[in-house]
Amino acid sequence: VTHSIPACIGSMTINSKQLDNETPVSIFAVNKCYETVQDGTFFDGSGFAALVREGYKVRSDVNISLEFRTTVAHGVLLGISSAKVDAIGLEIVHGKVLFHVNNGAGRVTATYEPRGTNSLCDGKWHKLQANKSKHHISLIIDGNLVHTDNPYVQSTSADTNNPIYLGGYPADVKQNCLTSKSSFRGCLRNLVLTKGQHTELFDFSRAFDLRGVFPHSCPGAEH
């Protein structure tokens, strides 16, 4: 087993002596246990999760679905880039969700803006689907569809080769389809990427780099 257990551990004794877990000698990626907990992965607003070390190839089509919960109006949700300009990105900016795609010819953005007093940053779960099919891009939030015209109709493939970054990205990593550097604070769950007939559900606890991210434990209410 190469990844940590998603669980709470307490009252541990060794040779009848109770261990003091309030003042550990060292600590890494361990959070407090919550009285009420939900399925999901908690991002504390300081870091990111990195998946697919060898690089994820978006190419002509991908469908991304995930659920998010936050009370903050800014934050990176997902970025997959290349060393060139090809990339895709999902982010929350001023309470709007933006889905950016660059197939090499220029960035195109689909923007979802909540109506009236509705907010996506209300601490409730919201379902997001972002679809790229050649030069077509669309965004569905809680069943509401937004799509945008793409003037670069000849350019259809996002030739990405970098990892999938969730909730933020390292300072030394280039992201060509994200405008924000703010790390996401809140919870994510049910990240699924679909290409054609191939559907992949990603387990955050199997990320090769986790900073400020706590898999499988989302506080029922933030304190």
TrEMBL record:
Provenance organism: Sylvia borin
Gene assigned in the entry: Lama1
Domain Laminin G residues, every copy: 38-218
One Pfam family from the record: Laminin_G_2
InterPro entries cross-referenced by the UniProt entry: ConA-like_dom_sf, Laminin_G, Neurexin-related_CASP
Protein name per the record: LAMA1 protein
